[in-house]
Specification:
There is one protein chain. This protein is mostly helical. It has one domain. Helix content is 77%, strand content 0%. The protein starts with a helix and ends in a 6-residue tail after the last helix.
């Protein structure tokens, strides 16, 4: 019994790690395209190579709309749905209802995107302290990810004595978004979950 539990935990860990890494790549690709990052940036190129195989197939059924590659969103939903389903099946032996799985997947993607923004801002702030003015592919990508949030925040909190306080405001708003939007959505999805009846 105990060894079986250990194997289940190890399997869940592996599933979570592998799925989360690929999910991160797809989410970054979507966000960088959304914010018009340089397609020829080495990081952008790496993400394209990693995510292209399934996206080429999905695009046959999910075309782009208004310049946005919505196939990436569909792929994210598929990845996180499979991940949640496998983990739930291994840990409890249950199969989630489709509407519950869909809501949990949306909540998971929302949390992932918010965390991407928060981590990107943290990294950018640290880089501005230790290596101000540095220019490389990573800093260009970070700037593309964070500026759509930090730019409007600077209108409310202009720099004080040369110190940019906009990251603090944005991080507070992002954290509140997790607490007030993503987590309640996740709890709602859990409350709807029940073994599927065949």
């Amino acid at each position: 019994m105990m060894s079986g539990g250990y194997f289940s935990q190890a399997f869940i860990f592996l599933i979570t790690t592998v799925f989360d890494i690929y999910l991160l790549a797809v989410a970054l690709r979507f966000l960088l395209q959304l914010f018009r990052a340089d397609f020829y940036n080495p990081i952008s190129q790496l993400l394209v190579k990693i995510t292209n195989p399934p996206l080429k197939y999905i695009r046959k059924f999910v075309p782009g709309f208004k310049g946005k590659d919505w196939s990436s969103v569909v792929l994210m939903l598929i990845i996180i749905s499979v991940k949640i389903s496998l983990i739930t099946l291994i840990s409890s032996g249950r199969v989630l209802a489709l509407h519950s799985l869909f809501i949990l997947s949306l909540a998971g993607i929302l949390k992932l995107v918010i965390n991407i923004f928060m981590i990107s801002i943290f990294i950018q702030v640290i880089l501005s302290w230790v290596s101000p003015g540095a220019y490389n592919p990573a800093t260009v990508i970070l700037n593309r990810l964070t500026e759509p949030l930090l730019g409007p925040a600077r209108k409310f909190i202009p720099p004080i004595g040369g110190l940019d306080l906009s990251p603090i405001l944005v991080i507070i708003i992002l954290q509140l978004s997790i607490i007030l939007v993503a987590t309640p959505l996740e709890h709602f999805g859990i409350s709807l979950s029940f073994p599927a009846r065949f």
